[in-house]
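Supplementary Methods. Inverse-folding protocol.

Structures were first reduced to a C-alpha cell string of length 268. This string, shown here, constituted the complete conditioning input.
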C-alpha cells in the first residue's frame, strides 16, 4: 500500500516485481486490488504498478466532473512522479478507455498496450443488450449495498464462473465492498465513461495509435459485448485480438492463468 503526490492529486498504488514497467488500470468502481492475480504471477518478469483511479481506493476524489482525458493525465503525472520514462499500459473496461487516450495523447510514454473488455467510444461502440441494461437497472435499485453489488456482479461474470467458483465470487464481492470509495467519485467515473462511450469519437483517431496492441475479450461478456473488441482490433493498425472462452467481463479474475499467459507473451 502506497501513495504518491502528483501535480494534480494523490494517487494510491501498489508496486511489485522487477523488469520492464507495466501500469495496470482498473475499470469503473474497482480499485487496484482487481489486479491481485497479475501482481502475484507476473512479478518475476515485470515491475508492476497497479493504480487506484481518481475517486476510488486510496486516490484522491476531487469534485466532478471527471473526463477520460483527466484520468489519462493522472497516469502521465504518476509516471512523472515515479520517474518512469516509458511503460506498457494495461487497461480494462473504463481503464481501457484511459489506456487508449493515454496512448493517443502521450505516445512517447506508452510501450505496448493491452485493452481488455473495452470499447473505442462514441461513433463505434456497441452497447449491452436491452435485457442486460434492464437487469443492471434493477440491481442498481436495490438499497442494500451487498445485494446491489451481487446483482451487478451476476451480470458481470460469466455464468459458468458464477456457478463453479462460488468462493471466488464471494472473495471478489467482499473485496469490492470493503474498498474505500467516494460516492461522488464513483458517480463521476461513471459519467466520464458514459461521455466517452456516447460522445468521444476516438474511433476516428485509433488509426494513429503507434503502440503494438493486444485486445482481449471474454466471449460471454455482457457488459461490453465482444464485437467492441473486434472493432478495436480492426481500427488499431498494430493490434491483435484474443477471445477467451466461457469468460465474462472480468477476464483477469475469471481466468487469471490464461490472461497472465497472454500478458507475459505479449509484453515480454
Amino acid at each position: 500500500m502506497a501513495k504518491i503526490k502528483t501535480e494534480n492529486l494523490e494517487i494510491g498504488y501498489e508496486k511489485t516485481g522487477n523488469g520492464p514497467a507495466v501500469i495496470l488500470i482498473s475499470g469503473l468502481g474497482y480499485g487496484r486490488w482487481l489486479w491481485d492475480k497479475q501482481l502475484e504471477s507476473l512479478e518475476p518478469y515485470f515491475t508492476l504498478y497497479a493504480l487506484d483511479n481518481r475517486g476510488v481506493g486510496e486516490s484522491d476524489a476531487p469534485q466532478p466532473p471527471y473526463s477520460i482525458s483527466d484520468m489519462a493525465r493522472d497516469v502521465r503525472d504518476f509516471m512523472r512522479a515515479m520517474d518512469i520514462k516509458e511503460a506498457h499500459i494495461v487497461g480494462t473496461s473504463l481503464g481501457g478507455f484511459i489506456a487508449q487516450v493515454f496512448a493517443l495523447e502521450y505516445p512517447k510514454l506508452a510501450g505496448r498496450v493491452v485493452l481488455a473488455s473495452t470499447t473505442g467510444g462514441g461513433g463505434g461502440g456497441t452497447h449491452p443488450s436491452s435485457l442486460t441494461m434492464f437487469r443492471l437497472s434493477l440491481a442498481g435499485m436495490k438499497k442494500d449495498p451487498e445485494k446491489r453489488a451481487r446483482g451487478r456482479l451476476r451480470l458481470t461474470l460469466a455464468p459458468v464462473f458464477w456457478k463453479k467458483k462460488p468462493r471466488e465470487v464471494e472473495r471478489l464481492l467482499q473485496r469490492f465492498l470493503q474498498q474505500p470509495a467516494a460516492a461522488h467519485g464513483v458517480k463521476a467515473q461513471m459519467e466520464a465513461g458514459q461521455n466517452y462511450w456516447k460522445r468521444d469519437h476516438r474511433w476516428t483517431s485509433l488509426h494513429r495509435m503507434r503502440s503494438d496492441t493486444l485486445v482481449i475479450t471474454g466471449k460471454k461478456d455482457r457488459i461490453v459485448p465482444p464485437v467492441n473488441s473486434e472493432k478495436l482490433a480492426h481500427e488499431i493498425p498494430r493490434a491483435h485480438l484474443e477471445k477467451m472462452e466461457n469468460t465474462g467481463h472480468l477476464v483477469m479474475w475469471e481466468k487469471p492463468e490464461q490472461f497472465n499467459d497472454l500478458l507475459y507473451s505479449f509484453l515480454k
